[in-house]
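Incident review: delayed structure delivery

Summary: a single-chain prediction request sat in the queue longer than the usual turnaround. Root cause was a stuck worker, restarted by the on-call engineer. No data loss occurred. The affected request and its eventual output are reproduced below so the record is complete for anyone auditing the incident later.

Affected input:
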Amino acid sequence: MVGLEAEPWLEILQAPDRNGLTVTEVCRRYNISRKSYYSYLARYREHGVAGLAPRSRRPKSFPARTSAEIEAVVVRVRLDRPQWGARRIRTHLQRAGSTRVPAVSTVHAILRRHGLVGTGSDHEALRTATTAPVPERSMTTHQTPSRAGSYT
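Output delivered after worker restart:
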């Protein structure tokens, strides 16, 4: 189970000895997998109660992340030309002969990371705020011929 603090895990790990249950029965009772049980048991044996604390799931490194140089170029182009979006910036980088030009989605992620693009709702709010109000249309009635051929 994700998000359990150390105390519940300590109770789960001690349950087989305390209650005379098998590991399988304990796992069924607490709705956890046997693999999780044994993983936490190994952490408990190695680090004590501190090993039962939740761990970060964030990766330690990002080997495929775009280099700082390319990121800086993307930011510089956007600041020079604030009206350009990710597609236009990527095309500009390709035409300029940059090596390893990132994908459009990566360019957009860089711009978002640096606060250079808003969310879709920001743009929608801006669009509705800057457009002129649409006047209401007057109701018109159209005359259509009846079955008898006369207009009603």
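Verification: The helical segments are 6-19, 23-30, 34-47, 68-80, 86-95, 104-113, 120-130.
Action items: add queue-age alerting; document worker restart procedure.
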